[in-house]
Design a protein that fits this description.
heterodimer; A: alpha/beta; FAD/NAD(P)-binding domain; Arc Repressor Mutant, subunit A; 3 domains; seven-stranded mixed sheet; 12 helices; B: mainly beta; Ubiquitin-like (UB roll); five-stranded mixed sheet; 1 helix; 8 strands; 8% helix; 30% strand; globular; binds flavin-adenine dinucleotide
């Protein structure tokens, strides 16, 4: 079925900060590295580079600064030991043979490596509400990527809703680009925020960044509403406004607090969840990250997973942000390299100390911005929670009433998570819904099982069907029932 | 018009791509999603089951909301696919 695989010392999945740092460190040590990313360019989410032939200084200042720093890091990828394959999706892994199945510009390919580092990043978390599938509702990061990589302003007047520091950072960038930010809705109450803020004591840079952003927003007169969330996106086919609501400490909306607000775009971000699918296909054990309320991949202090020769670094190991990603990338690259007999040019014990400190700082930040399952009370029965299969909250609630307690059981009942996104969007939402309806802690609810191909690839590359080249999901062998 | 190109960026000469038989302006390196948004189109497709409009959502290739048929290949993520001269997009 498969051709003889190409060979490399270290294969790295993901060319974000973590993957790039790993590649550079391992290459400098002398290892042959193959770096893979499904995007057309290296950089990952944080260091996303412009797709246009534009100069940095033509971008809004904060974005330009970010692009510049990213480019500095990426310039090291020129090292002759690094083979960077862009636009290449790793859709499967064979853990025992250490073979990766790829799909890219050359079609299907296989790669065999002595060590494999998965640095697949994270996804943004969102929650549903009436109208949330309308064009004009996007993720905050999605809108940010449009600005960074495309120089596109997503809307004229924006509402940002969710929880966590990305809201403020993105708002500053949108403002600099000339978009009007109508309001920022932060799920946590002001009281919770102030009570938890001392946890950041000593992590001055984090505190400093946040305060600088907040100050700029304040000066610009942008309403920052604590203890609020978006309850509805209005408009016929596309967004023309929003209904916002107060929420209590559990995230339950306060009836009667509704206000309407005129905006053309609504951007959501309730933090992030690690991209664990590929590591799970490899068989890596997961761990519940209590700081960020999401499942991540477990490792020892060498960043080795439960599966021999497989490492994870950055967001896939647990939400950590860009500094953690860089440090863990370096560490994983150094350790994988030295296991193969190369000599990394970094001080491993120092690096490990820095990494552990950075993790600690981020954990403190994570506990300040929890997602709250009370938000599910906002979701009316007719609202689709699985965007792909258009399964409504009501259908999910009926299944839960019938005794379903786990995500995987919900699948055959309702078809949730069986569409093209494979539950990447609805998985976290359903987790919260199950927790809300049954009272079980989200750490007890197992995520959807991950299966290959982890994203849709043409039929011929999975070795089945015809060679029509159709990118379809439903027809893939071995995945769920056919759509009826 | 909701989405607009940030004016300070020099983009070189425009190219044109076809979206449902209509020529729209695009620039080298742009994603198909960005070009469609800049042309004033926010609804990229309608769902099979509920006939609901969908458009740009996650922007990073995970949600599959922004898919369209590109040069005859169905369900291509327009946020992950760059424009090419003469590319033909059919909405689904
Ligand atoms: C949309 C978005 C916006 C963000 N904005 C900010 C911000 O402004 N500030 C901030 O501090 N943090 C931000 N973050 C958090 C961000 O994830 C981290 O700060 C940082 O980018 C993490 O680095 P990483 O290397 O772990 O992952 P990433 O940077 O996410 O890189 C992972 C890479 O892996 C690739 N990949 C994943 N799976 C596969 C596969 N199977 N095959 C091939 N390639 C694959 C992806 O295409 C991606 O390029 C954002 C995250 C997202 C999702």
């Amino acid at each position: 079925m498969f051709e003889k695989p190409e060979q490399t010392d270290i294969a790295i999945i993901g060319a974000g900060p973590a993957g790039v740092a790993a590649a550079v460190t391992a290459a400098h040590a002398g290892a042959q590295v193959t770096l893979l990313d499904e995007s057309p360019r290296a950089g990952g989410q944080y260091y996303k580079q412009p797709a246009l032939d534009a100069k940095d200084k033509q971008f809004p200042p904060t974005v330009a600064e970010n692009i510049r720093k990213g480019r500095e890091l990426l310039s090291d990828l020129q090292h002759s030991n690094i083979n960077f394959q862009h636009s290449t999706l790793v859709w499967n892994v064979l853990p025992e043979e250490r073979i990766l199945n790829l799909y890219g510009p050359q079609g299907a390919q296989n790669l065999q490596a002595k060590r494999i580092i998965i640095a697949a990043g994270a996804y943004e978390r969102v929650t549903p509400f009436t109208g949330w599938t309308k064009p004009g509702v996007t993720t905050v990061g999605g809108a940010q990527l449009l600005l960074k990589s495309q120089g596109l302003k997503i809307g004229q007047r924006l509402l940002l809703a969710g929880t966590g520091p990305l809201l403020q950072l993105a708002a500053v960038q949108f403002m600099e680009a000339g978009m009007e930010v109508a309001a920022i809705l932060e799920l946590q109450s002001r009281k919770e925020f102030l009570l938890k803020a001392p946890k950041l004591w000593g992590h001055w840079d984090k505190l400093g960044q946040g305060m600088a952003n907040q100050k700029r927003l304040l000066e610009a007169g942008i309403p920052f509403k604590f203890g609020y969330t978006v309850a509805e996106a209005t408009g016929d086919e596309e967004v023309n406004g929003a209904v916002i609501m107060k929420v209590n400490g559990k995230g339950i909306p306060v009836l009667g607090s509704e206000e309407t607000i005129e905006v053309d775009t609504i951007c959501l971000n309730y933090g992030f969840a690690p991209a664990v699918e590929l590591a799970r296909v490899a068989g890596c054990t997961m761990v519940f990250d209590k700081y960020f309320g999401s499942f991540a991949i477990e490792t020892n202090e060498n960043l080795e997973t439960s599966v021999n020769a497989f490492f994870v670094a950055g967001e896939t190991r647990g939400i950590g942000g860009v500094e953690v990603a860089l440090l863990e990338g370096k560490l994983a690259g150094a350790i994988a390299g030295s296991q193969l007999g190369f000599t990394p040019k970094v001080d491993e014990s120092n690096l490990r100390k820095e990494q552990q400190q950075a993790r600690k700082a981020v954990a403190a930040l994570g506990t300040m911005f929890p997602l709250k399952s009370g938000l599910c009370k906002l979701v009316k029965d007719e609202v689709p929670v699985c965007r792909c299969e258009e399964v409504t909250a009501g259908e999910v609630r009926r299944a839960i009433e019938m005794g379903v307690t786990q995500l995987n059981q919900l699948k055959p009942w309702t078809r949730v998570g069986m569409g093209r996104c494979q539950g990447r969007i609805c998985g976290g939402i359903l987790n919260q819904m199950l927790a809300d309806e049954t009272g079980v802690s989200i750490s007890e609810i197992q995520p959807f099982t991950s299966r290959a191909p982890i994203k849709p690839v043409p039929m011929e590359s999975v070795g089945g069907g015809d060679d029509s080249g159709e990118f379809t999901w439903e027809d893939h062998v071995g995945y769920g029932a056919a759509r009826t | 018009m909701t989405a607009t190109r940030y004016k300070k960026i020099e983009r070189g000469k425009p190219i044109s791509i076809m979206v449902n038989g209509e020529a729209i302006e695009a620039f080298h390196g742009e994603s198909i999603a960005a070009a469609m948004l800049a042309s004033g189109r926010r609804a990229f497709r309608h769902t099979v089951k509920g006939k609901q409009a969908r458009g740009f959502f996650c922007g990073m290739g995970m949600c599959f909301d922004c898919i369209a048929t590109v040069d005859g290949v169905p369900h291509v993520r327009t946020c992950m696919t760059e424009v090419s001269p003469d590319c033909v997009v059919e909405l689904e």
